[in-house]
Amino acid sequence: MKNKYLVLAGNNKLEKVDNTLFLFPLKGYCVGMSHEYAIQEIPKGSYIYVNRLFDSSLMNSFIELYPFILKCAQGIVFEDLGVLEVLKEKNSPLKTILYATHAVCSLETTLAYLSYVDSVILSPDITLEEIKYISSQAKVGAVLFGHLPLMYSRRQLVTNYARHFGVEKTNPFLIKEPIHNKEFLLVENEYGTVLYDNAVYNGYELLDCPCEYYLLNLEFTQIEHFSEWLKEFEAGQYPSTSSFFLHQETIYRLPPKEERHD
């Protein structure tokens, strides 16, 4: 990518800013978004975002829409590898960026995916040192700011929860985990629900990494002027919120059980 920032703007104003490319969630092909765009609303030369998990019906719909996508988009950011199969079959000229939220966590995985796509966005589940190392070995992007998606379900979890407990349904829907008092933001549409960490992730330190570009997720962050906000962010003036796993390794394997000697 030629631009330093790839931005999911949400309901914020799309301002023209140097080194910035806005990412347009494609209506009908996304979950967990505050603002989606019909294909005819997307400006020519844009990047589109598709994060739904595909089934046969959605795949056929995407194939039918592909000629219209080609007219307005120069690239696509996606999660389901089924998208890649369609693009391969069409010999597509679209630039491809894989953002498989929790999948790209090592150099080996990164290089494997880069055999098939133009770029990958690293998972925010790894540490600052791991991101520095991987980005020094391969051209990748990293998540820089925003509410981080933790889980995606095809079920309408907010609707079911509100019905079961007899509470008012809102969207987004805030819940609190009672043991650690951690808050989560649930965002639902007809295709499913995404659960986000309600603490805003701030990866400002990643600007020192040799990443090719950065993803800014402003879907649920309201700002007045994006250009001013970005200048303040780059100057380190935005208040620290959550650094997620940048300084804390993810626990991915439990230690072996100790032998019992009864």
Task: Describe the protein in words.
It contains 6 helices and 13 strands. The relative contact order is 0.16. It is globular and about 60 Å long. It is α/β, with parallel strands linked by helices. The strands form 2 sheets. It has a 9-stranded mixed β-sheet with strand order 6-5-4-3-2-1-13-7-12. It has helices at residues 56-72, 81-89, 107-113, 128-137, 157-165, 226-234; strands at residues 5-8, 20-25, 46-50, 73-78, 95-98, 119-120, 141-146, 149-153, 173-177, 182-189, 192-197, 201-202, 213-217.
Give a topology summary.
Layout: E1 5-8, E2 20-25, E3 46-50, H1 56-72, E4 73-78, H2 81-89, E5 95-98, H3 107-113, E6 119-120, H4 128-137, E7 141-146, E8 149-153, H5 157-165, E9 173-177, E10 182-189, E11 192-197, E12 201-202, E13 213-217, H6 226-234
Parallel strand pairs: 1-2, 1-13, 2-3, 3-4, 4-5, 5-6, 7-13
Antiparallel strand pairs: 7-12, 8-11, 9-10, 10-11
Helical segment count? 6
In whole angstroms, how far apart are the ends?
Answer: 61 Å
Structural class: alpha/beta
Strand content: 15-25%
The major sheet is characterized as: 9 strands, mixed
Q: What's the rounded overall pLDDT mean?
A: 94
Number of strands: 13
Helix fraction bin: 10-25%
Taken from the alpha-carbon principal axes, the silhouette is globular
Radius of gyration, in Å, reads 19 Å
Strand order of the largest sheet: 6-5-4-3-2-1-13-7-12
Q: What is the string of SSEs from the N terminus onward?
A: EEEHEHEHEHEEHEEEEEH
Unreliable residue runs: none
